[in-house]
Write a structure and sequence with these properties.
Rossmann fold; two-stranded antiparallel ribbon
Length: 275
């Protein structure tokens, strides 16, 4: 039996990529994050383009060979891109089908908002697993990057250290962009992110002192730029902004769509304008 172990390992260990890794993503945001990690060790392309509604991308025959030759495929992994399973079936590439070494579900590890407690056609096109528009929160981008890194390590282990270093650099840049250089230097990005996720960041910064002044005075980045808008109410078209709203505390008081996926009537739009 011991003699069979090398053979079994050969049969059940997925082959690693030889040459540049080929990454395909469902959406452009995932492609942008993947490029930050892949660098010059591969190519990254997106099926959807930036001005397409991710719910309703029209599959094209040209997408099939793109996926057939992919080493890694990144998709949300929920019920957003309902056009993805049919494309994967036609591509016939077991490496990037769900469960394969090159399949990455971007949502993994991200707490989902708007998880429905009931289902009814009268509610519109609701997402049964929760809100899949995960990319509008900068902290979610960090988790998406980690998920992509995990997939890259599986399909291209010889480049694992290179990818890990670039992913770590991406995280650091995201922390500094969100919280500002000074606060990240004082407390560290992960600590700030943990406080933020718990909804305790601003209380902590207002209550703690550093060199005779509240830490809130050291806040920079996008959160500082967004301070004048915290607590403001805005009208949103669709629920894709819910993660952004939570992070920056800019709440959607109503939606142009009366229900998810239902086009608004002129009367409803006018009601939103005059609200």
């Amino acid at each position: 039996m011991l003699r069979l172990y090398p053979l079994l390992l050969t049969l059940f260990t997925p082959p690693s990529v030889t040459g540049p890794v080929k990454v395909v993503t469902s959406l452009t945001t995932y492609a942008s994050i993947a490029r930050e990690i892949v660098g010059d060790r591969g190519t990254v392309g997106s099926i959807a383009v930036g001005n397409e509604n991710p719910h309703y991308v029209q599959p094209k025959p040209s997408f099939v060979p793109t996926l057939s030759g992919a080493d890694l495929f990144v998709t949300t992994g929920l019920d957003l891109e309902l056009w993805v399973p049919a494309l994967l079936d036609k591509a016939g590439n077991p490496k990037v089908t769900e469960g394969g070494p090159g399949y990455v579900a971007a949502y993994a590890g991200i707490p989902l908002l708007d998880v429905p407690s009931s289902f009814s056609r009268t509610q519109g096109d609701i997402h049964v697993f929760g809100n899949p528009h995960i990319w509008t929160d900068p902290l979610n981008a960090i988790q998406i990057a980690r998920n992509i890194l995990t997939g890259l390590k599986r399909v291209s282990p010889e480049n694992a250290d290179f990818f890990a270093a670039r992913e770590k650099d991406f995280e650091e840049r995201m922390y500094r962009a969100l919280f500002g250089d000074e606060l990240v230097k004082l407390l560290g990005g992960p600590t700030l992110a943990d406080l933020d996720r718990q909804g305790k960041l601003f209380d902590f910064l207002n209550q703690r002192q550093y060199q005779g002044a509240p830490l809130i005075t050291r806040l920079g980045g996008w959160l500082k730029q967004g301070m004048p808008f915290r607590g403001k109410l805005v009208a949103c078209y669709h629920k894709e902004w819910d993660y952004f709203s939570r992070e920056f505390q800019v709440d959607c008081f109503d939606y142009i769509e009366p229900k998810p996926g239902i086009p608004p009537t002129p009367r409803h739009v006018q009601e939103i304008i005059t609200a």
